[in-house]
Every structure is written in C-alpha cells, then in structure tokens.
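Q&A log
Question type: sequence-to-structure
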Amino acid sequence: MKKFLSVLLTLVLLLGVFAMPSSAAIADEESVDYAVVDNGNPKTKLNLRSRASTSGKSYGLYYNGTPVIILEEMTKWSKVMVGNRVGYMMNKYLAFGSDAENVESAMPEVLVNNTASANWTVIRATPSTSGKIIDRFQNATNVTVMGTSGSWYHVDVDGVTGYMMKKYLSPIAGVKYALVNNPYRTQYLNLRSDADADSESIARFYNGTRVRLLSDVSEGWVEVSVGALTGYMDAQYLYFTNSTSAIRNGWLSKRVTTSTPGSRLNFRSEPSEDGTVLARYTRGTRMYVMGMVGDWYYVKCGSRFGYVARDFLK
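Response status: OK
Response body:
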C-alpha cells in the first residue's frame, strides 16, 4: 500500500505540473480520479496504447497495481497518465475507486546495479538513449518498476518517474551475494565497523571480491560478510549478483616468499595466528590478493580462500 500511495502521489504532482498553472497545482490525491492496473492474472501486463483501440501502438506493458490518473473515462477505454506518459487503457483491466485498494501489487522492486565505472545510471523522459536525462541514481538505489517497454523499464524512484535501461537494474529477490565494484580496478572498498563513512575500517577489498549479503540496503549501506569478517559496505560500490565472475577483478598476483628454503607458509581461516591452519604452501606458490586486513592478506589460492601474513607474499 505504501508503494502504491508513493507512486500515486507522484502521478498527482505530475498532473498538476502538466495540466494546471503552478499556482493551482493539485496537492490532494482525493480530488483526482485514479485507478490501478488489474489484469486478473498478476503474471500478465496491460498495454498502454497510443489510441483507444487494440490496434493502437503499445507504449509499454504495465504490472498489476500500477496506479494511473484518469484523464478521460469512456465506455470501454480510459485516457490515462502513467508516470510521465499519457495513453489509453481498457477499462475492464482497471480497478476504479475503492476496488483499487484490493488489488495486490505485482510491481517489482529492483536495484540500480551498473558495472560501468560510473557506478550510477540515468533516468530518461522517454525509452531511448537520446531521451532527455531527468536525473541519475547511484548503484543500490531502490527502484519500483511500473512497466516495461522493450529494453527499458518505466520506473518510479522516490517520486521521480521515467525510463531506465533494464541491463542496469537487478532484482532484489533471490540475490544473496555481491561483488566489490569500485570505479577503478586499482581502488579498494572499505569494510567498516558501522554503516557510516567515518566508522573504523576493518579491512579493504579489491574489485571482484565476493561478499555475502546479511541485510537489505538501508540508507546506502549493507551489512556483509567476507571470509571470517563481518561489517558494512557502501552499497553503491557493490554489484549485486549471485554470479562469481560478473565483473573484471582487480586482485593482485603475488607469490609465496618464505624466509628459509623448504619452509611453508600457513594459510589460515582468520587474520590471526590463532586462526586454524587450512593448508601450508611452499615458496613460489601463486596467490591472488583480494583484500588487506592489517598485517594480513585475504587471498585466493586454487579453490581456497583464507588469510596469510603479508610479509611472506611478494
């Protein structure tokens, strides 16, 4: 219901901007006729068409629960506003008045999730790369999807409506992991003790390092675990995916350099001499440094992940 009211209020404000002088802008949703998409089957979507006919061009397909402003109601069709787009929808697939409150929303919630170096994506006025840029949003921003139009989603982001490319958005449901995704491969991302940029840095990790999500994104931060460590990361520098190799990593390639020939380097479960020894490696063994924790490296060696003393990798 909260999602519905948020999107509806956005539509009301848009209607005030487009239909009336600013001095008489609409501020009360009860003074506006509205409906919500009600396809019956939540897996289907409703066309927004260019004219009141099934042969009219489709501007997009919209999910159950998407609120629309009624600009003109006819016998079988209504002229409606959806976000920043005006078109026509069939009345039999709309729920009006109090019936609208009983329609369960099927609008997906997704995250901005761009692997490009910018770590953000733009929202446009039309579903085209030449469409006017309305705003831009950082990775991990929550987005409500109202409908689809080819390779674009028609979305609402905290009251801003427009179009975003599907490839830069990822579903929230079912995603349990993320990959460190700094703007540049040589940079690292801090794992912090609290959800605050001024809190203590526990460790630092390079691009491509996989972290397990322990919470939802909240105010731009997410609780994660990496190896034996738990803390918070700035979500805009994470790429949310269950894949282990969706982005190019920035790990450092190093080799074991033990102090004496024949000696072996302990590979531990924690960044401490009290950590369980998982394996021992001879001089010259290649390891990939994924992160740093004080005097320890978090590394990958073969299929193993663990910690080794920094002094013995060069």
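Response note: Residues 177-240 form a domain with the SH3 type barrels. fold (CATH 2.30.30.40).
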